Amino acid sequence: MNGRTRSQERILQVMQELTKPTSAQDLYMELRNHQFSIGLATVYRSLDALKLSGLVQVRTLPSGESLYSLPQEDRHHLTCLRCGSSISIDECPVHDLEHELQAHHEFRIYYHTLEFFGLCPNCQAREEVAAGAVE
Fold first, then answer.
1. Containing H/E element for 102?
2. Are the CB atoms for 44 and 65 separated by under 8 Å?
3. Is 0.70 topped by the overall pTM?
4. 30/1 Cα distance (integer angstroms)
């Protein structure tokens, strides 16, 4: 036995079919669509346990919403604080640092995230237009 509950197994099963990170509420609806009767509180508890074991990663948006996904690869984003849009970036300047930290501190790293917050081009343009209208 792997130590995971039936609810955790079902969550992992459904998450493998998802193509993008999802909220706990949306995952709850997906589970119901698969005819799995798991309460929302159990979904949250199971996601937390899976996160602590490194089987699920969580990303918290500026709105406070948490998105869950399987940690297949490290995630990196540019996230707009105004409209909430998020641009995925492929470059990762911290892979070497991750390996160094893991070795130096004997710390088991499951995954890492890298996120930069600011304004996207559209929101920058809107800000400039609004500033021009004020002057």
1. helix 95-105
2. no
3. no
4. 26
